[in-house]
Amino acid sequence: MLVEVDSADRGGFMMMRGRSKAGRKPKAGPRYACGRLRPVRDQGNERVAALAQRFRSFQGGKADQWVLTSAIGRAWAVGLLDGHDVDPSLIRDAGLNYAARYWNYYPSTSGVGSYDAADRRGRAVSCDVADPRGAAFRRLDQAIAAAGSAAYDAVQSMVVDLHAWPQDNPDWLDRLINARLKRAGVPATGPEPLASDHDQLRLAVEGLMITIRGGRGFSPSPVDNGPGYRKPIS
């Protein structure tokens, strides 16, 4: 069926056909000389960015990767792991290694790592060395347990319990870290540390130092964090 179109309608139709669509608006942002957009570093959400900023003055401004991912990383950053005859970063790494192997061994929230009567613990590798049967984890766990139940619980509190909330600290460690932040002139709120908080830190370090020493009768020196402690923060 043919439909007649008068000249006025035909002219309007031709004008519509000749009209070009608007192009896509260019993305905003800094560009290279060639015109390509420069990549923008992802700073994370506001809480993560604020957390990084709070610790920026510690460890020469190079502690971001540690303070954003673990409580023991923040403890290391403000100098709470100082005062021993090993590099504080070794204590930090011992805690992170234990936590990684712990969650490698117990990958589910219920603590069950097997099904169909087969031991499948350690398959979800989250640390540098695969540990298919959890032998390395069990050695570490037994070494820390040998330091006593109080030290074992302190290590668990510091590096394991808040695994799912990496930007949070246990209450006792939060008070210790805030005290160091205040001493460095960084705004921080909250109560002052308790004597028991220093005890918790000492016990956690004792447990982790045993894993560094291989459990060979090591007796760690106490952490000097008493009222008269005035060691500069590095």
Radius of gyration: 28 Å
**Structural class category:** mainly alpha
Share in β-strands: under 5%
Terminal residue distance = 88 Å
Shape: globular
Order of helices and strands: HHHHHEEHHHH
Tell me about the largest β-sheet: 2 strands, antiparallel
Helix count from the secondary structure assignment: 9
Give the oligomeric state.
Answer: single chain
- Count of individual beta strands: 2
Report the average pLDDT across residues: 76
Helix content: 40-55%
> Strand order of the main beta sheet, please?
1-2
Spans with pLDDT under 50 lasting ≥5 residues? 109-127, 215-234
Topology:
Layout: H1 7-18, H2 46-54, H3 64-67, H4 71-77, H5 88-105, E1 114-115, E2 118-119, H6 135-145, H7 149-160, H8 171-183, H9 195-213
Antiparallel strand pairs: 1-2
Helix pairs in contact: 4-5, 5-6, 5-7, 5-9, 6-9, 7-9, 8-9
Characterize the structure shown:
It is a single chain. This protein has 234 residues and is mostly helical. The protein has a domain at 45-92 and 133-213. 45% of the residues lie in helices and 2% in strands. The chain has nine helices and two strands. The protein has helices at 7-18, 46-54, 64-67, 71-77, 88-105, 135-145, 149-160, 171-183, 195-213; strands at residues 114-115, 118-119. Strands 1-2 form a two-stranded antiparallel sheet. A hairpin with a 2-residue loop joins strand 1 (114-115) and strand 2 (118-119). Helix 5 crosses helix 7 and helix 7 crosses helix 9. The N and C termini lie far apart (88 Å).
